[in-house]
Amino acid sequence: MGYLVLYWSFMIIGYIVANRFAARGIFLGWIQKAMMITVYVLCFVMGLRMGINEQVTSNLGSLGAKAFIITVFCVAGSMVAIFAVRKILGMDRYGDIRKSGDSEISGLSSEDKESSLDIKSTVIIISVVAIGLVLGALVLAKKYQAIMPEFESVSATSLTVLLCILLFFVGFDLGASGEILLNLKKVGFKAIAFPVAAVIGTLVAGTAACMIMGFSLKEGTAISMGFGWYTYAPVVIAGAGQQYMIASAVSFMHNVIRETAGIILIPILAKKTGYLEVTGIPGVAAMDICMPIVERSCRSDTVIYSFATGLLMCIVTSVCTPLIMSL
Q1: Domain CATH number, residue 247
Q2: How many structural domains does the chain have?
Q3: Segment (H or E) for 244
Q4: Which domain holds residue 36?
Q5: pTM of the predicted model over 0.85
Q6: What is the pLDDT of residues 234-266, one digit of tens each?
Q7: C-alpha–C-alpha distance, residues 298 and 285, integer Å
């Protein structure tokens, strides 16, 4: 929870600073470019860390296939659940309340089109993650074994610093728009309904997939409950006993895949499936690394749903995973 407070603080500071600059009429258009540069660097560091981790590079066979299938079920379950809630609440794919006679396209303005993350940015994000992974596996892990402990520590600190910078930019951008408080009032209880749907959809579909592939109900629930938090859930599962090491390995790979899927798929699927649906793709990363991607691929008000979804998943994972593994 300490990191959560840290990240929140930087976003709030960015929001306050932007409000003061906006009040003086200072042009703030440069923030989008600075935000995306930070995303690229962050993704590259994440790729390096994935590459040097033997659990990722040496288990890309049968366990990787299982992790991939579980991820597909979890993401699909989350998106379907959000879609169902959106339809029940009478909202269009852009998160607006539909009125009689309105077409779904009415929710999309020219400003939204301009804020979408284009294909060039998507390719860059995919490329920097892949380059980082390859460099980590073929260069760092093989030729610089002696400095691996130091690199692990420095890269972990770098991720924290970059996330703080990123969330400062997100808060800055939201503060500059001057619409966040209005959007919070407008969203109301729906900011909770969609995250709850994403959690339930993930657990139902993911646990079913795990059990089909031979995992127990306990293991399947714990694996699905990782919600992309690959530095926490797999460790909790492994700590429950040697008999859970396979479940821990699959959990790690599944959570890495889910977070990466959010980075790659949010810009691609936002316009095709719906703004709200894509907030359920990355899991807990919806409130940090993927939040600026949601902001640019969708609209600024969609960030509210993204942040709430990531936060709820973070709370459920941290509280319920140890509880389940202790049963």
Answers
A1: 1.20.1530
A2: 1
A3: none
A4: 2-325
A5: no
A6: 878 888 887 888 898 899 889 989 988 998 899
A7: 16
